[in-house]
Amino acid sequence: MGYDRKYGNIVSEFGDIPPDEPVIVFRGRDRHIVTLMNAYYNMCRSGGDPLSASPEHHLEIIKETIADFQQWQMENRDKVITPRSDRYIQRMRGVNEAEDGNNG
User: Fold this and answer.
1) Distance CA 76, CA 27 (A)
2) Per residue in 61-73, pLDDT tens?
3) Cβ neighbours around 67 below 10 Å, total
4) At 1, is the secondary structure helix, strand, or coil?
5) 30: which residues sit within 8 A by CB, 6+ positions away?
6) Cβ burial, residue 72 (10 Å; 0-12/13-18/19+)
């Protein structure tokens, strides 16, 4: 289980994420995800040099994931947003207010 600052604990179906490893979750509704994933694909493909490029099977997974995001966004245009992390900010304010109340 990893930890994402916005979504909290992230559980992997295969249980291969150590509890102390940071994780980030990008969702289909994120307006920037396709651009981000294309940049990631290009970085993995080139790796900075031929010896550090990702294997072809990893690149295929990325391409398939990009296609999944594109398809979802085309079918759900009304749900695609520019992320704001409002719930995270509200949650953090609540934590900070609770901590302030405990210190008084």
Assistant:
1) 12
2) 999 999 999 999 9
3) 12
4) coil
5) 36, 80, 81, 83
6) middle
The residue length of the chain stands at 104
C-alpha 81/C-alpha 55 separation (Å) is: 32
The conformational region for residue 23 under phi > 0 = left, psi -120 to 50 = alpha, else beta, is beta
For the record, the structure tokens of 20 come out as: 């102390």
| CA distances (Å), origin 59, targets 16, 20, 28, 48 | 20, 27, 19, 15
Interval 35-52 mean pLDDT: 87
Whole-model pTM: value is: 0.76
The answer to whether 66 touches 41, Cβ cutoff 8 Å, is: yes
Residues 6 or more apart in contact with residue 29 via CB below 8 angstroms: 73, 76, 79, 80, 81
Average of per-residue pLDDT values in the chain: 87
pLDDT over 90 at 87, yes or no: no
